[in-house]
Amino acid sequence: MASAAEQIASSINLGAFAKATELKKRLWFTLGCLVVYRLGTYVPLPGIDPAVFKEVFSHQAAGILGMFNMFAGGAFGRMTVFALGIMPYISASIIIQLLTAVSPQLEALKKEGEAGRKKINQYTRYGTVLLAVVQAYGISVGIEGMNAGGNSAVIDPGMGFRLSAAITLTGGTMFLMWLGEQITARGVGNGISLIIFAGIVAELPASLARTLELGRTGALSTIAILLVLILAVAVIIGVVYMERAQRRIVVQYPKRQMGTRMVGGQSSHLPMKLNASGVIPPIFASSLLLLPVTIASFSAGQGPEWLTTMLAYLGQGQPLHIALYVGLIVFFTFFYTAIVFNPADTADNLKKYGGFIPGIRPGKNTAEYLDHVLTRLTVVGAAYLSIVCILPEILIAYYSIPFYFGGTSLLIVVSVTMDTVAQIHSHLLAHQYEGLIKKSKLRGRRG
User: Fold this and answer.
1) What is the pTM of this model?
2) Other beta carbons less than 10 A from residue 40's beta carbon
3) In sequence order, what are the residues at sequence separation of 6 or more whose Cβ sits closer than 8 angstroms to the Cβ of residue 172?
């Protein structure tokens, strides 16, 4: 006989969605926030000559700045108020999480519950402002040195422009951070991930058109375009399969006597995802790779020689870029998995409620077993993320395909879509449960 949850899940349809008023409000709120974000990516930065900047950027878009532009949803290539995107916030989050792992004070704050979490979030916001100001001022200085056809990308260079650009770009990043938090709290899905997702998806049609134009002009062969499209489909299928993959560990609960009857004795399972860290490692890895290069890319032509050398080695498809990218993905996969799943705490909870893994003694032995399984799963998960993100990037560097067809962008799009759909499904389930509870109460009153 099907369980109540299975019956409810099978009954979810468009009719149930139409009745879920709260869910519809959340979806409309999320959509509205994303529309506001996309409109902001077309508001130009004051004091910029958009035509000159576009011409200069077109010569550098094939490098690592193209990836930065991807995460900014095209706002960087247009140099708009949202040009920095959400990356300073992500970089600040990385720094705070790393400090939490090594700082006893921050570790104590983390264990204080809601109050501690709010304090850590406040530190993250301060870090975001600091990083955004540094990046924004560096970019404003770099833009002043841009020229195309004898025309400067800045209409009126000087300290006034630098200050106004730094304030505007920093304000844009802080607004996006606030917008992401509002989506998470009052909408559906993770706000920060959805902002990155919206930027990538919005630029996909233009990237597809540019790719087809390269094929029409003969810059790309038909075989190369077909190869990239096939690879994109393969990556999507692989991501869906691997993101759903999990190891189910059997957990047995002994029988207990409650009053005059025996309860328990059933077996359950502890699901452990193959990729518990989700899409966080590639985003974090990209953020750290982009952080030092963002400013250096603009001043490389006029700055010291080592800057030019660094940019050359960190170019898309270069061995150093690939090695650093893979290393950072592996590191953040293990680091973030350790944050979201603690074997010792899980073992203690199982022991507390009388659960045990068949053949494994409760307590320390269970924690060691879970840690062993988690390590093996994380190794496979890190390898999967590295292959998905790096293999397409190599082909993209070789065939000069836009970054929006890369493994990182496809991974983000597919993963965020799956997470958002899962949250919508959870809201629908909750709505169905509420409906059943109300009906049972009405029947009880009539009875």
Assistant:
1) 0.76
2) 17
3) 40, 80, 81, 82, 83, 84
Is residue 6 assigned to a domain? no
Least confident stretch, 262-271, 324-333, 422-431: 262-271
282-330: pLDDT as tens digits? 888 877 777 666 556 555 455 566 666 776 777 666 788 888 889 999 9
Residue 356, token pair as written in the block: 């045990």
* CA distances, 316 to each of 135, 282, 408 (Å): 21, 15, 13
- Asked, for residue 328, whether it belongs to a domain, the answer is yes
The dihedral built from the CA positions of residue 401, 407, 410 and 412, taken in this order, carries a sign that is negative
Q: For residues 431 and 53, what is the distance between their CA atoms, to the nearest angstrom?
A: 50
Domain range enclosing 69: 21-446
Which helix (H) or strand (E) segment holds residue 400: the answer is none
- Residue 8: inside a domain: no
- DSSP secondary structure of 72-137: TTTHHHHTBTTTTTTHHHHHHHHHHHHHHHH-HHHHHHHTTTHHHHHHHHHHHHHHHHHHHHHHHH
Contact (Cβ atoms closer than 8 angstroms) between residue 100 and residue 110: yes
Number of domains into which the chain is organized: 1
Alpha-helix runs per DSSP H in 191-279: 191-217, 222-244
Rounded CA gap, 397 and 376, in Å? 32
Q: Which pLDDT does position 169 carry in this prediction?
A: 92
| 34 touches 196 (CB < 8 A) | no
Q: Which residue, among 254, 239, 266, has the nearest Cα to 388 in the 3D structure?
A: 239
Choose among 35, 42, 25: nearest CA to 83. Answer: 42
Q: Is residue 342 part of a domain?
A: yes
CATH number at residue 164: 1.10.3370.10
Q: How far is it, in rounded angstroms, from Cα 66 to Cα 402? A: 8
User: How many residues comprise the chain?
Assistant: 447
Query: Angle at Cα 388 formed by Cα 384 and Cα 394, nearest 5°?
Result: 135
The bridge status of strand 255-258 relative to strand 246-252 is unpaired
